[in-house]
Design the sequence.
């Protein structure tokens, strides 16, 4: 039941039942209103001059002088201070009045509750704070605006009463009785001085009395004042309460601004037009000034005036006047130039700059004497500070600003039109002077002065046939009309010696031509065979006239249907041409090309809204489908979404398995996308189609989509009815309809209930791709978090940056490596599973002298603290790094997620040095795809992320964690341009595809190998040319390395600039060249490393013959190998593909890859390479600088490589480049040395891999051996040796490792010994010659899901003898005889927890680890 109560004011007495002392009316404490000051900044709402209390007076500071109710009773019987726990929740307050949208009024019947200290208290009012309980109460706002309340008691809300108080309409009783309030009424604000524009008005201050038609409780009707038409701009919260409103007009409107207002009565909420009185407050009667914009001096300009309340009908609606009159207040004018007042009719001033000002009831007529910009002001109220204004510009003389014209392309007999469109002054009265003077020129001829003495010279409009105009008016003779012309208009004739400018808006350029073909367009670049296409052939001038026609020529395979369409009947690439025919036409031909090909599915996938590929979704999530088809454009498709049935025939049961059908249209690039939501309808259909059963209680649901091309019979492109798309699989449904399946099994969308964060990625600035190149400080990027089943969940995102090395230190065995730079707390995941925020790397975060910084993001979820249920903590769920779990270290975080660190212990117990901390960070934390690389420089570089994003218009995400992604990345053109900065870009572009193909084939596939290869190549050729130039001047020959010429002046003078002679003499009888022949010239340097001489060409020919078939290359005879010298073509080595291959041939055949890989000292590696390439060269220092960068000395001259290839290919950042001496305690400290060796491979044939020689040299019995001997034991020996463990005797024999410490079950890194033969017969140290038989040894790193196989990394694995490699393979558990570790190594318990692995590694056996 509703209650009625009195308003509570400041000074009311209040008590609380749980208070120790102030718990009754007799001991109640005073109330001080605090809520208004807290919310509004001051007390604003009053009654009886006292602030009104609201339900936000809910804290102790509002009671008892700020101490609340003294002490409260605790649940333990002890007293506690109210101030610390006071938090009151009120009920039974007055809900209809809402101060500032959030403050309800308290009544004396209102009560509150407070939980206190376990003994809940009830808060009640003993008194209201009112001086008396009068029959009515005035409620005021701070500006003395008061409300007379009809009743002193206001009613609270009754939850049981469903009847709502509502107002249906209002009407006015006075000052103007009106029953239906549709019109706007006016309140006139009188000027506050003796002068008044309302001399004929008797301004009164009557009462405004309104009454409401309503139902419900009268005390719940609110009267409110709003500004404007809506209800958002509330001027007064309430100006009245009850069914009738009665106030002085002045008290409401006297101090308000000009403008429109409305008073509305409502019971629940405002917004009903029938309950509204519209009132406009008028201070000044001037509404608008209208002028004709620019004009000219000494021409009278009319200025008109529009007034407010101007009509008798409007004046009859003025609320605050009693005598109506037809006299309208006069307007007064000010005219200003800048801040200077030239004219003021009110003050009686006028300036000589103005000729005259003539006033009238409708405005003024003003004539200006001087040019300039003037401001006109009009007002009826002299106190108006912002009168209506208008600006006019006065010109000194008439000028032409724009002209208009007909066509700018004309045949010789077309009509020519040009006329003046605009003068510099808009207002020019009829009869005023308007003149024009035309000037004409022809390109190549100049000004045609004959026009200036013709009748057309001063015509306002020229409208003639162009040949007539040019011949009769412009004096063009002999019919030579073709050409380009310019015509310009001037208001005044040009004086002597002045030339027209022929530019700007008063100039028209036109051309007289022979009509010709302009464009031949086809609405597709590729179409399927059998397609009918509408072409567009347009002429330069249209429409065609006088026998002009366009002829379209088509080749065989295309049919011209004669109706503006072509049908493509054969596959291939075609050229279609068109030209113009007819008298006085130009027969030039235009062409367009089109490809007719079988449409091919390029991509179809599910994706997030960012375009990244998606394979899982949850219910109520949005997912996008994407489709791209080569050779099919602008084609309508039907997409059908299905839940995949358990049998292949589910497509035949559309009613059961089809979830939705959507229309899509491929765009001009053959791409289309659509969106689905796995809503309740989807769920119902899916669970009905594939119900849960006893045998299958948790069925897996997968969504797929199919397509159906919609073949139209009309339109610009009509595809054949039998259209097929390569790469799709057709399903013919019952009834004949054909569906095309487009998704592979790994592209299906699985419905899951599991919550997960799938990926974190930084986007490009435009948000359309993953950022794959360096960005710069100050640039803003999107940060994408892709999730499944986490829509609307709140996550925390932190962006970290590496701690500068100067700030790194070790505290309690933790090295903090990264610090948070930006945190996003409580960010919500969207309906599509995407959380997106913006990130900007700030300039102040730079850490010179580094060239770039990596920024990585981490996403955390909020969970309950397991140690304290009342507390929440953040738990990291995903981060953009991959952890090297082969190291005995852990990634740790501070509780506030402000720092990341590595927790690790050194084996020798000493603290980490700075170099060791940096090395540990480099080895332990690898950055993933999608992280942000921010340059501190200004030149962008490619970021070698291992991500190719699946954008809606991009490709699929690929992931290869744990490797250096640059090693296998393709060489890019920008990288080549950095290497060969003086080279030919065209030559680089031609060589690039072969470089990438052959690098991959011949394993120049590490950053270090690439850098050394190109460092040598650019000192040989610099890629300016692929053939050695022997055209040497005398000085060059004299100082060269060529022994025949060096220092021999006579020979140098004789042969200077003679390439043939220099080649024959310099290289004759050397390098396998035949004496007395031209071999020296014919076999001069060619290719990437300048292969020189018959011997080296023969080496390339042998290499070529060996690899030709696998490379798909034709038979070539570069040089004879059989003594038959006819038909040799050494010049072919200068062709790009052979030039590249020749350099790689020399590199691979001479073991240069292995020299690079095995070496540690950079200078030593360079010297060893040079010893093989050209041991006698004087360019060693140049080659050093080519790799490392910097200055060098060559032939007594200083040079400089600003950027070494080591920097270009980021060798120092490569994860495969350097071994480390960092040894940690914990998990198998030898294993970090094994993984970087993956990929080391025996070389089939006569060659040997020097790296395998290094393995043998580390064993106890294999020094000097090579890959001709099975080398698994040598590899294991080398790995253990790197970690400081001495291999057992005869360690090349697998059986001899059984005498190390044996384990019952393997730990991570245990050596698994496999007995293929009779290894159990071996004896320690091989006593008695018992060293065992055939076997294998390898390192355990994981196990299969079923536990029947172990995953192992080892040497001499896979393939056939002579081609085995260091790789990961899996071995049957039953094949392994022993698991061994170093004798002095004690494993921790958790080292027995092997990782479950599911890769498709080969299952190795005796056949691919031993001889066969």
Sequence:
């Amino acid at each position: 039941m509703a209650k009625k109560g009195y308003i509570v004011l400041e000074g009311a007495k209040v008590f609380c039942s749980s208070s120790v002392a102030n718990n009754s009316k007799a001991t109640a404490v005073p109330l001080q209103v605090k809520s208004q000051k807290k919310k509004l900044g001051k007390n604003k709402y009053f009654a009886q001059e006292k602030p009104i209390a609201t339900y936000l007076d809910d804290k102790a500071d509002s009671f008892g002088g700020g101490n609340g109710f003294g002490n409260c009773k605790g649940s333990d019987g002890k007293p506690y201070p109210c101030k610390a726990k006071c938090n009151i929740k009120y009920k039974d307050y007055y809900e209809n009045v809402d101060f500032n949208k959030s403050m309800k009024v308290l009544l004396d019947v209102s009560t509150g509750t407070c939980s206190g200290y376990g003994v809940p208290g009830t808060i009640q009012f003993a008194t209201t704070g009112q001086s008396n309980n009068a029959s009515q109460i005035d409620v005021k706002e701070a500006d003395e605006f008061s409300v007379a309340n009809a009743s002193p008691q206001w009613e609270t809300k009754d939850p049981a009463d469903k009847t709502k108080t509502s107002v249906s309409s209002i009407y006015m009783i006075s000052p103007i009785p009106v029953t239906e309030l549709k019109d706007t009424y006016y309140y006139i604000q009188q000027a506050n001085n003796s002068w008044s524009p309302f001399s004929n008005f008797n301004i009164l201050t009557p009462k405004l009395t309104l009454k409401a038609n309503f139902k419900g409780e009268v005390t719940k009707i609110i009267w409110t004042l709003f500004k404007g038409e809506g209800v958002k701009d509330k001027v007064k919260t309430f100006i009245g309460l009850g069914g009738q409103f009665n106030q002085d007009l002045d008290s409401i409107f006297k101090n308000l601004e000009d403008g429109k207002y409305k008073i509305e009565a409502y019971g629940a909420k405002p917004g009903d037009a029938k309950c509204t009185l519209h009132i406009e407050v008028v201070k000044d009667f001037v509404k608008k000034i209208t002028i004709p914009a620019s004009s000219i001096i000494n021409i009278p300009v009319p200025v008109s005036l529009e007034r407010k309340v101007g009509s008798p009908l409007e004046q009859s609606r003025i609320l605050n006047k009693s005598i109506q009159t037809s006299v309208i207040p006069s307007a007064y004018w000010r005219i200003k130039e800048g801040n200077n007042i030239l004219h003021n009719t009110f003050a009686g001033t006028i300036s000589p700059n103005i000729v005259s000002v003539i006033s009238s009831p409708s405005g003024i007529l003003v004539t200006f004497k001087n040019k300039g910009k003037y401001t006109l002001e009009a007002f009826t109220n002299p106190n108006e500070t912002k009168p209506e204004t208008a600006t006019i510009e006065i010109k000194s003389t008439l000028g032409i600003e724009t002209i208009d014209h007909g066509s700018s392309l004309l045949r010789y007999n077309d009509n020519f039109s040009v006329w003046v469109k605009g003068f510099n002054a808009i207002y020019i009265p009829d009869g005023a002077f308007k003149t024009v003077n035309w000037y004409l020129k022809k390109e190549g001829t100049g000004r045609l002065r004959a026009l200036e003495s013709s009748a057309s010279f001063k015509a306002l409009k020229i409208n003639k046939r162009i040949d007539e105009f040019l011949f009769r008016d412009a004096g063009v003779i002999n019919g030579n009309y073709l050409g380009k012309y310019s015509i310009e208009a001037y208001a005044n004739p040009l004086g002597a010696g002045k030339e027209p400018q022929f530019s700007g808006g008063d100039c028209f350029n036109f051309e007289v031509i022979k009509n010709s073909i302009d464009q031949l367009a086809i609405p597709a670049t590729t179409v399927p065979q059998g397609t009918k296409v509408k072409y567009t052939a347009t002429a330069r001038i249209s429409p065609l006239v006088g026998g002009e026609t366009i002829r379209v020529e088509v080749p065989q395979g295309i049919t011209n249907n004669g109706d503006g369409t072509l049908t493509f009947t054969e596959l291939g690439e075609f050229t279609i041409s068109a030209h113009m025919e007819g008298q006085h036409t130009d027969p030039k031909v235009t062409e367009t090309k089109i490809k007719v090909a079988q449409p091919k599915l390029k991509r179809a996938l599910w994706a997030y809204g960012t375009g990244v590929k998606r394979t899982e979704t949850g219910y109520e999530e949005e997912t996008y489908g994407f489709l791209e088809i080569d050779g099919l454009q602008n084609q309508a498709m039907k997409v059908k979404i299905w839940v995949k049935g358990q049998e292949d025939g589910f497509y035949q049961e559309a009613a059961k398995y089809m979830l939705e059908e959507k229309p899509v249209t491929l765009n001009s690039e053959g791409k289309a996308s659509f969106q689905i939501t796995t809503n309740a309808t989807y769920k119902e259909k899916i669970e009905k189609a594939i119900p849960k059963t006893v045998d299958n209680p948790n069925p897996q649901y997968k969504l797929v989509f199919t397509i159906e091309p919609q073949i139209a019979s009309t339109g610009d492109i009509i595809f054949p009815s039998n259209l097929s798309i390569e790469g799709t699989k057709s399903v013919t449904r019952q009834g004949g309809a054909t569906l095309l399946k487009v998704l592979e099994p790994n592209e299906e969308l699985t419905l899951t209930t599991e919550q997960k964060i799938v990926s974190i990625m930084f986007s490009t600035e435009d948000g359309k791709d993953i950022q794959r190149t360096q960005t710069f400080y100050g640039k803003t990027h999107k940060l994408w978090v892709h999730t499944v089943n986490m829509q609307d969940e709140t996550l925390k995102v932190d962006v970290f940056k590496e701690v500068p090395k100067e700030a790194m230190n070790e505290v309690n065995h933790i090295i903090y490596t990264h610090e948070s730079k930006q945190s996003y707390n409580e960010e919500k995941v969207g309906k599509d599973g995407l959380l997106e925020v913006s990130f900007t790397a700030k300039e102040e975060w730079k850490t010179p002298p580094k060239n770039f910084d990596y920024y990585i993001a981490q996403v955390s979820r909020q969970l309950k603290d397991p140690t304290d249920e009342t507390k929440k903590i953040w738990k990291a769920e995903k981060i953009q790094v991959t952890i090297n779990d082969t190291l005995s270290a852990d990634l740790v975080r501070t509780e506030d997620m402000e720092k990341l660190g590595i927790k690790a212990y050194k084996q020798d117990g000493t603290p980490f040095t700075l170099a060791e901390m940096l090395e540990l960070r480099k080895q332990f934390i690898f950055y993933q795809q999608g992280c942000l690389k921010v340059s501190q420089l200004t030149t962008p570089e490619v970021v070698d992320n291992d991500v190719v994003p699946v954008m809606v218009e991009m490709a699929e995400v690929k992931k290869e964690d744990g490797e250096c992604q640059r090693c296998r990345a393709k060489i890019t053109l920008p990288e080549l341009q950095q290497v060969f900065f003086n080279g030919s870009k065209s030559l680089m572009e031609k060589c690039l595809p072969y470089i990438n193909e052959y690098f991959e084939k011949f394993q120049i596939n590490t950053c270090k190998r690439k850098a050394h290869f190109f460092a040598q190549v650019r000192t040989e050729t610099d890629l300016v040319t692929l053939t050695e130039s022997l055209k040497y001047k005398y000085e060059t020959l004299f100082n060269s390395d060529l022994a025949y010429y060096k220092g021999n002046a006579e020979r140098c003078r004789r042969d200077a600039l003679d390439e043939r002679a220099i080649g024959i003499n310099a290289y004759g009888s050397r390098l396998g060249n035949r004496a007395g022949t031209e071999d020296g010239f014919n076999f001069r340097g060619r290719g990437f490393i300048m292969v020189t001489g018959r011997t080296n060409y023969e080496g390339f020919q042998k290499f070529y013959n060996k690899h030709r078939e696998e490379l798909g290359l034709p038979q070539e005879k570069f040089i004879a190998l059989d003594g038959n010298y006819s038909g040799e073509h050494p010049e072919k080595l200068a062709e790009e593909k052979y030039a590249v291959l020749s350099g790689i041939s020399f590199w691979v055949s001479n073991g240069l890859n292995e020299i690079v890989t095995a070496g540690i000292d950079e200078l030593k590696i360079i010297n060893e390479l040079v010893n093989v390439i050209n041991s006698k060269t004087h360019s060693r220092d140049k080659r050093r600088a080519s790799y490392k960068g910097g200055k060098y000395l060559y032939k007594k001259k200083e040079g400089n490589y600003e950027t070494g290839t080591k920097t270009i290919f980021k060798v120092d950042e490569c994860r495969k480049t350097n071994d480390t001496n960092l040894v940690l305690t914990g998990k198998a400290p030898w294993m970090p040395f094994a993984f970087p060796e993956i990929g080391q491979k025996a070389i089939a044939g006569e060659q040997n891999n020097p790296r395998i020689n290094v393995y043998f040299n580390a064993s106890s019995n294999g020094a000097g051996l090579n890959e001709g001997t099975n080398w698994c034991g040598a590899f294991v020996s080398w790995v253990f040796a790197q970690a400081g463990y001495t291999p057992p005797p005869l360690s090349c024999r697998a059986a001899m490792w059984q005498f190390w410490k044996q384990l019952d079950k393997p730990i991570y890194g245990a050596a698994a010994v496999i007995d293929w033969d009779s290894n159990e017969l071996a004896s320690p140290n091989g006593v008695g010659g018992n060293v065992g038989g055939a076997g294998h040894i390898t390192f355990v790193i994981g196990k299969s899901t079923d536990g029947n196989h172990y995953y192992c990394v080892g040497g001499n694995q896979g393939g056939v003898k002579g081609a085995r490699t260091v790789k990961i393979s899996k071995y049957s558990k039953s094949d392994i005889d022993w698991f061994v570790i170093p004798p002095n190594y004690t494993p921790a318990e958790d080292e027995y927890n092997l990782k479950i692995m599911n890769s498709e590694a080969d299952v190795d056996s005796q056949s691919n680890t031993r001889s066969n």
